[in-house]
Fold:
Amino acid sequence: MEASNPLAKIPALERGDGPALYDSRVICEYLNARAGAGLYAGGWDTKVLEATADGIMEAAVLATYEMRMRPEEKQSPEWIKAQLGKVVSACSALNARWMSHLQGPLDIGQIAVGCALAYVDFRHPDAGWRTGNEALADWFKGFESRPSMQATRPPEG
Structure:
């Protein structure tokens, strides 16, 4: 795996017709182009929304790693709180600036935000991102009920 994915990033997509692709944004853009899906038709706004969602994911994953991979006596509660603070801050920005885009035609920005919020709920259910972000919380309630989100929900437990 090292030769095809030198950073050991997940997800990674091995292809028969070229080198492996890694990083969610790269894989999504590749699949979009291959399917001719038009998920990037929103231009820069769509990409900024996708990048914001990726930042939410990165902060939430880092907090998860801190809590699961480091011995308890070496964990930094302040650092975990700071990472989850980034999640809440990004959600506040989405709620204040991006609701019209989120409620528009489906694109990769919406998918990325939906996946990021689902991960936060899965790993950090007490993060508090809904507080003060009612419009975003309402949007997510509808988005997470989509069949595609339900079909990819992690098992409980």
Remarks:
- The mean pLDDT is 94.
- DSSP finds seven helices and two strands in the chain.
